[in-house]
Amino acid sequence: MEIKVVTGSITEIKADAVVVGFFEGTGCLDGDIAALDKALGGAVSELISQGEIKGRLNEVTVIHSLGKLAAARAVVTGLGKPAELSRDRLCGAVAETCRRLRKMGAASIATVAQGAGVNDISPAASAQAIAEGALLGLYRFRRHMTGEADYGEIKEFTLVAADENERQKLESGCRRGRVLAEATNLARDMANEPANYMTPAIMAEKAKELAADCGLKCQVLEPAEMRKLGMGALLGVAQGSREPPRLIVLRYRGSGSAGVDLALVGKGITFDSGGISIKPSEKMSEMKGDMAGGAAVLAAMRAISRFQPKINVVALVPATENLPSGSALKPGDVITALGGKTIEVVNTDAEGRLVLADALGYALKLGAKSIIDIATLTGACHIALGDFYSGAFGNRKELMDGVLKAAAEAGEPTWQLPMHEQYKELNKSDVADIKNSGGRYGGAITAAQFLAEFVGDTPWVHLDIAGTFLSDKERGCLVKGATGVPVRTLVNLVLSLAEG
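Above: the chain sequence. Below: its structure as C-alpha cells.
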C-alpha cells in the first residue's frame, strides 16, 4: 500500500473515502470535521444530534457524499474520550476504520493528523500511529490460498497536511510508522507459515535473505559446529526430528566499537509437539508459531537496519523442531549445555528454555553487554496474564525499566513479574545441576529462573509472549493469527539505548 502526504483540504481530496476523527462528549465541531460537515450540508451535525455518531472509541460511521465532496464517502471515526486518547488507541481506531472501508470496496483513503495536539500527541506521532494502524490493521496472510479474496485491497492511503511545515512532520512520522509496521508484518508472515514451510533450514535462509537486503551479516551454525561448542541442550531437543537444527546469528553494527552492546535472543521452535511429553492434539496446529520469538528478533533487525542507530546489536535464533521419535529426548535424560551446566530433562515439553540456554550461553561467548530474550515459553504466563499482556522478568532494574517504557510506547502491553530467590529452589535436581521444569505452580517464574542460570551477571530481560504471540480475533491493530509482538518494543528499546 502506498502511503503519501499532501497539503490541502480534506474536503477537496479525491478518494474513495475521507476520514476524520470525533471525540466522545464533543459539544461543537471545529477544524476538519466542521469543514466536512459544512460541505455535506450539516449531515455530520445531524447524525450527532440523532445519536448515531457518539464518538465512542472505534465507532465508524460512513456517510455517502453524493457529489458534495471530491471523495465518494466521508467517514467519522470515534476516538473515545479526549483524556484517554493514546497513540495505541489512535492506531487501533485507524485499523478498525481501514478494515471497514476495505470490506466496502474502498481502494483509496485520505485522512488528517487525527488526535494531534491531544495528550501531547505531536503531528509526527499522530502520523506514525496512523501509518501503523493502516498497515497492521489491513494485514492478511493469504500465501497458501488459491481463491480470490472476498474483497480487494486498499492501495493508496493519503495524509493531508494543512501546510508545508506540517507536511514535513507527517512525512517523518509516516516513515517511522511504515518501518515499524512492515517489520511487525514480516514477523507475522514468518509465524503464520505452516511448519513445513518454515523449517529450521528455511528460517535460516530467510535470515540470509534479510541480511542481504538490509546490509547485515549473517552466520548460520550447523550441528557439527554446535557439537564442537558443546551445545548439548539445543542438540538434545533437535535429536527427535529429521530436520537438522540451526543457530542463526544476525549482526548489525552501528557503533565504531567492536563489542556487542545488545543481544536479542529469540526462541525458534518451528514446530512443538511437546516431544515425548506430547501435547494434547487440540490446537497443536498453533505450535507452528512457537518460533514467534525468533521471528520477532529477525524482523526487529530489519527495522534497526533501516533506522541506523549507533549501537551494535546481534540477533540469535536457536531453530529446531521438537518431535517425538525413537531418538528423541526422554523424561529423565541428562544433557549438558554450552558452558558445562548439566540439565535433567523432566519434561520434554519444556524445550524452549533448553534451546535458549545454549543461545544465551553463545551471547555471553560473543561478549554481549546486555541480553533480551523473547519466547513463547510458558502456558503459565498465558494463564497469569491472559492474551493482552506479555510477561517480563529480569535481573537489572535499569534495563527492565527501558523495556517496559519501550513496550508502552509501542502499544504492546508488558507486565513485570517477580524473580524471588525462593523460586529457584523448585528447579533443583537430584541428578544434575538443574532440572528444566519447576512444576505447575509459578511456572512462568521458574522458567525465567532457569534462564537466569545461563546469563550470569549480564543485564538481562526475558519476555514471555506465550499469551500474546497469537490473536483469535481482530482487535484494533491486531488481526487474527500471529501478532508480531514484540517487534516494535524491541526496536524502540534499541533506538532508546542508542540515544544514550
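The longest strand covers residues 312-322.
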